Amino acid sequence: MYDQIREMENENNLTRSEVPPTLLITGAAGFVGRNLAIRAKMTGWRVVALLHRTPLPSAATSIETRVCDLSNEKKTVQLIQEVSPDVVVHCAYSKEPDQQEKVIVAGTRGVVAGVKTVGARLIHLSTDLVFCGSQGAYAEEDRPAPLLPYGALKLEAEELVRPLCRAIILRPSLIYDPGEAAPHESFIENATRENRPVTLHGWEFRSPTDRSDLVQAILHLASEGGAPDAPSELFHAGGASSLNRYEFARALAPLRGYDQQLIKKEEAPPTGAARPANCSLISHRLRDRLGWELRGVYRVIEDFLKGVL
Ligand SMILES: NC(=O)c1ccc[n+]([C@@H]2O[C@H](COP(=O)([O-])OP(=O)(O)OC[C@H]3O[C@@H](n4cnc5c(N)ncnc54)[C@H](OP(=O)(O)O)[C@@H]3O)[C@@H](O)[C@H]2O)c1
Q1: How many domains does the chain have?
Q2: Which of 126, 171, 269, 287: CA 20 to 30 A from 209?
Q3: Ligand 1 centre from 67 Cα, in Å?
Q4: Domain containing 223: what range?
């Protein structure tokens, strides 16, 4: 894809007579953000990538960038005013426990304040982990009750976004790409590389979200506009299949070159483990809006293999 964007620019295919709309992406060097930035640029947006510490991949250097620490609310508002985007896609978050509150909650507060001042549309990425996992097959009407601190902070961030007109909250599940290992797979990769067995939860069910499908859905929603006073909307964005973590790892193993024999299954949660068991999602509302469904894992893998074999 990176080569493709260069080629398109060399051929000057992106020259437009009118001014393209501006898409500001927070967390733009992250797993979702970098793919979104490149796809958005390829489809004619003016993209402004908001970075923190990590740069964009070298082949995407033609994308306009700004650096900002989102935990500084005042600077975040200032930056959004300077860029004056039509749409902001808020992907940034932190995995570091001592940073999570500042980035997820205070960071979102700054983004919401900035979006309000320029009248942009906000597309906010939340998570399936806002649910406790006791039920599974969650729809948007179901009441969130997070078990993990991360899920609780993401829910707090959702509450900040909810009153905003035209805003969209998307709740993806585990995000993956058949062509590139996601950060949440690194422990499997490390163990199998060292020929160590790795145990995956056979009891933890999710609806993994293919990164390309998610990015395509975001770009679809970003281009809709929406009436200025339209209330915010919530969409589940899980893939069409529900798998446990063990099945998911086994499905990806041949693509990643992992030895499947090293992937072991944990049948039941250890006593006292406070992790949601079944956060699978029903994403029919998003399917109806897009006119197509985010694909399930086996279909994504099949489509990927058709493209490479
Ligand atoms: N990945 C999943 O499986 C998954 C599942 C459900 C929902 N989500 C949600 O989807 C979104 C995107 O996830 P992802 O996997 O793309 O995340 P990611 O790869 O970890 O990227 C997160 C980005 O946030 C940036 N960031 C961290 N602290 C920041 C700060 N103080 N100021 C500004 N930016 C900061 C990071 O920049 P630096 O690296 O430079 O610090 C990084 O580029 C997140 O909101 C996440 O909650 C993800």
Answers
A1: 1
A2: 269
A3: 15
A4: 2-178+208-240+281-296
